[in-house]
TrEMBL record:
It comes from the Bacteria. This is VOC family protein. InterPro entries: Glyas_Bleomycin-R_OHBP_Dase (IPR029068), Glyoxalase_6 (IPR041581), VOC_core (IPR037523). Pfam families: Glyoxalase_6. Signal peptide: none annotated.
């Protein structure tokens, strides 16, 4: 079956302080956020996956978790930590098949999963 949908056109979510939250995403992740921000991203795969309501993969009080593809997870994690942003890593999150993962949280507590795909085999 082919799809008429070609990709995600936006992610919209409520915020107690939209301007400050948008500035945080710009400063720490380089994402142009906000109603006037357009984030031009690299083409690549996107996983669109509902999780069971009782999943413990991310916090039960969050309806979704943002997953961002990154080029160099170690470099980004080191920079974020130097900026005072805690980075959580767990060996069980990483696999040869899917790659390397780490987590941070935005100023309002939203989990953000950083994901570096495994190196392409030759």
């Amino acid at each position: 079956m082919t799809s008429d949908v070609t990709g995600i056109g936006g992610l919209f979510f409520r915020s107690r302080d939209p301007e400050a939250r948008a500035a945080w995403y710009q400063e720490h992740l380089g994402i142009s956020a906000g109603h006037t921000g357009i984030w031009q991203q690299d083409a690549g795969m996107t996983v669109f996956a509902p999780f069971p309501a009782d999943s413990d993969y991310f916090a039960a009080d969050q309806q979704f978790m943002l997953n961002l593809r990154v080029a160099d997870i170690e470099q980004l994690a080191a920079r974020l930590e130097s900026e005072g942003i805690p980075v959580e890593r767990r060996d069980e999150w990483n696999t040869e098949e899917y790659g390397t993962f780490a987590r941070i949280h935005d100023p309002e507590g939203l989990a953000i999963e950083l994901w570096q795909r495994p190196a392409e085999s030759d």
